[in-house]
Every structure is written in C-alpha cells, then in structure tokens.
C-alpha cells in the first residue's frame, strides 16, 4: 500500500516526522520519515467533491502551509488546495495559466506564486484563489524560490536571468 505506480516527480518534507512524494500517477503519498512507512494517500480518483475531481495530470509541485493545508500543481495547469488532515480538496483553480506551469512557491501565509511556459508570474491569494497580481517576464519561468524569511521571491527564467521580487505590504516590486 502507498506505493506509486508511475514516475515520482516531487519529494518534500512536510513536518519533522513526515514527507510526501507525488508524481505521474496523480497520487500524493505521505510517509513516516523515521520508519519510511506509508501513512496515507491522497488519490485524485477518490477526491470527487463539489469542486470536482482532484488532479487530472501528473503532480509537478507541492507546497505546505503552517496551518495544515497542502497545495499541489499538476501537468494540466490545475492548482489544488487540500485540507491535509482529512485529504479533502478545499479549493481548486483549473487552467491557472495558459500553458504548462513549471513551479509554485508559497511566499506568505496567504500568498502563492506560480509561473511557467506562458512567461507570466502570477501571485494568488491561495485561500480564495483570487489573482492579486501578474507580471509578464518575457521568458519561460522555470523555477521559483524564496529566502528563509519568505520576503524575497526569486524567479529563475529559461533565458538564464533571475529576478528578485520583494514582498512588502502585500505588493510586489521589482
């Protein structure tokens, strides 16, 4: 139980005792770090809610919040928020970008950045999935990172350029 049936694309520690793995089988598997035993599985096929089904493409990225939510991204441009304790989908944004999304990054308790092949950096309030800002960076966004304090978002581009965005008082500035 708990094993993947296809390529694993993401491994991330979510707390001091657990990590998650996810990939092309649309599953998010939670593991006990100490014993490397299966704890539970988030499966899209069993995640039908009033919001709809879970992931429809392979999972490409995962972020976790300080208050018990897991945010995942799939190859079909869906970003899904799960209540981790119950493995229930709490919100979903379908077609969050016009083409492949390559990365997501939690940047504050309420804000998530996403970017991909459409060259657009989007800043979302992940609790409401309202789009708060977007920036056309003129090159494919390949990766997102942040400083330890999460006040600087670092954006890596296919062109070899990195941008730093300073998150101050709910506004992004280059």
Question: How would you briefly describe this protein structure?
Answer:
With 174 residues, the chain is an all-beta fold. It has strands at residues 8-13, 18-23, 27-32, 38-43, 59-64, 69-74, 79-83, 88-93, 101-106, 111-116, 120-125, 130-136, 141-146, 152-157, 162-168, 171-173. The protein is built from no helices and 16 strands.
List descriptors:
4-stranded antiparallel β-sheet, 0% helix, 16 strands, disordered C terminus, 174 residues, single chain, mainly beta
Which percent bin holds the helix content?
A: under 10%
- What distance lies between the first and last C-alpha atoms, to the nearest angstrom? 47 Å
Largest beta sheet, briefly?
4 strands, antiparallel
Strand content: over 45%
What class do helices, strands and sheet pairing give?
mainly beta
SSE order, as H and E?
EEEEEEEEEEEEEEEE
Q: Any idea what the shape is? A: globular
- Rg result: 16 Å
Unreliable stretches (pLDDT < 50, length at least 5) are: 47-52, 169-174
On the 0 to 100 scale, the average pLDDT is 85
Number of helices: 0
Q: How many β-strand stretches?
A: 16
Order of adjacent strands in the largest pleated sheet: 1-2-3-4
How do the helices and strands line up, and which of them pair or pack?
Elements: E1 8-13, E2 18-23, E3 27-32, E4 38-43, E5 59-64, E6 69-74, E7 79-83, E8 88-93, E9 101-106, E10 111-116, E11 120-125, E12 130-136, E13 141-146, E14 152-157, E15 162-168, E16 171-173
